[in-house]
Design goal:
- The chain has 87 residues and is α/β, with parallel strands linked by helices.
- The chain has helices at 13-24, 36-46, 66-76, 78-81; strands at residues 4-8, 28-33, 53-57.
- It has a three-stranded parallel sheet, sandwiched between helices.
């Protein structure tokens, strides 16, 4: 499946529930959260052969940090690493 989603606040609460639902459907899920430890643990828990999950440290209240966060997400994209991937 080529579907991707970036979920902020994905280490807990509603964001965590959404991440779990998308991963269960085979989406590639990127979790962003200020709680790095919880986010990394949860991303590893969700990663399977059908659902690839990554974590990016993310503070959406910091406008200055957002360009770097999105650059990291883009860098992790399979399409960036291999232009022929997922086609």
């Amino acid at each position: 499946m080529n579907q991707r989603i970036f979920i902020t606040g994905g280490a807990s609460g509603l964001g965590r529930a959404l991440a779990r639902q998308y991963a269960a459907r085979g989406w590639r899920v990127c979790i962003g959260d200020i709680n790095q430890e919880a986010g990394e643990v949860f991303a590893r828990t969700l990663s399977t052969d059908t659902a690839k999950t990554a974590f990016v440290s993310c503070d959406v209240t910091s406008f200055q940090d957002q360009p770097g966060q999105f650059a990291e997400i883009h860098q992790r994209s399979p399409d960036t690493a291999d232009p022929g991937a997922d086609q």
